[in-house]
Design a protein that fits this description.
The chain is 37% helix and 12% strand. The chain is an alpha/beta fold. The strands form 2 sheets. An 8-stranded parallel sheet has the order 8-7-6-5-4-3-10-9. It has a two-stranded antiparallel ribbon with strand order 1-2. The longest helix is centred in the middle third of the chain and has 19 residues.
């Protein structure tokens, strides 16, 4: 699978997507990297630690998000960052957005992958934009709660729905039927299959699609644990899987820890992701996750990991 100028061995490799939130209010690192000098320093740091893809986000989907940020404001945050990163570093760039207007401008600025937390189901123009630019895409599982309607205009409306952000799945917060699940795992697969069909209908290539189970989005605490435990079922859809659990509440609730102390729990989920066949992990702490992946791969292969996604030349 090609993302930007780099080829990814999605059959054998495991790759790290580093998170760069240029936001004042993200649940974990809001305001930390929204100055350009700090952002670029952090990109350089993550590259030195083994990052394979950089994920840039300009809108927080933390608990309480109302998905009402205007596209223009999001663009003001992400476009300068994308342009600066591409001018300075040779790294594939992912743009975390669910708005087609932002995706269009972001791709023109240099983004190589669109990371859509609504799996092409929020903005009707998103699939077309991705297809027209032959960009890669990550389609995340998400659902609207019962009684909530889609934003017919596409993106940024004041009527937009809160789908359960990065740290939203508190224990007991979601009732079992809030999102209309029957057979939870089969429903997640079916929802993602719908996203894939939207991609295919728009002309997005089979080799341009990554799937994300959406840990922390539209799921109870128990459902988050369940989807992590059964990640292999998503592989049955035939596309590489990205796992994003970094510092999320499923870790915090399990270990009773604040967001600043969730590294070890995140590493456990990363190891589980490798064991279950994930190709990508999206994380804040690159160095530690790279090392955990490398150790896991060494055990699985009974040899030192080398080559793409093997980190054989690091540390």
């Amino acid at each position: 699978m090609r993302i930007g100028s780099r080829e990814f061995d999605v059959k054998n490799g495991v790759y790290v997507m580093g998170i760069l939130n240029v936001t004042p209010d993200s649940f974990s690192d809001g305001g930390k990297w929204n100055r350009m000098d700090r952002a670029l320093w952090h990109v350089e740091e993550m590259l030195a630690e083994g990052m394979d893809i950089l994920d840039i986000g300009g809108e927080s989907t933390r608990p309480g998000s109302d998905y009402s940020m205007p596209a223009e404001e999001e663009l003001e945050r992400v476009l300068p960052c994308i342009e600066a990163v591409k001018a300075r570093f040779d790294v594939p760039v992912s743009l975390d957005t669910y708005k087609s207007q932002v995706a269009e401008a972001g791709i023109r600025a240099g983004a190589d992958l669109v990371n859509d937390i609504w799996g092409l189901k929020w903005d009707a123009g998103m699939a077309r934009v991705i297809a027209e630019h032959d960009a890669a895409c990550c389609l995340m599982h998400n659902r609207r709660a019962a009684g909530q309607e889609a934003d017919a205009a596409g993106a940024g409306s004041s009527n937009a729905v809160s789908g359960g952000g990065s740290d939203s799945a508190a224990r007991g917060q979601h009732h079992a039927d809030k999102y209309g699940y029957g057979n939870f795992l089969e429903d997640v697969k079916a929802d993602l299959a719908e996203s894939v069909e939207l991609a295919r209908q728009a002309g997005i290539g089979e080799d341009r699609i990554i799937l994300d189970p959406g840990v922390g989005f539209a799921k109870s605490y128990e459902q988050n644990l369940r989807i992590i435990h059964h990640l292999e079922c998503l592989g049955e859809l035939g596309y590489p899987v990205l796992l994003g659990t970094s510092r999320k509440s499923v870790v915090g609730l399990t270990l009773d820890l604040p967001v600043t102390q969730r590294l070890e729990g995140t590493l456990a989920t990363t190891v589980m992701g490798v064991l279950k066949g994930c190709t990508f992990v999206r994380v804040h702490d690159v160095k530690e996750n790279v090392r955990a992946i490398r150790m896991t791969q060494a055990i699985l292969r009974e040899r030192r990991p080398t080559g793409p996604g093997g980190f054989g030349d690091l540390f």
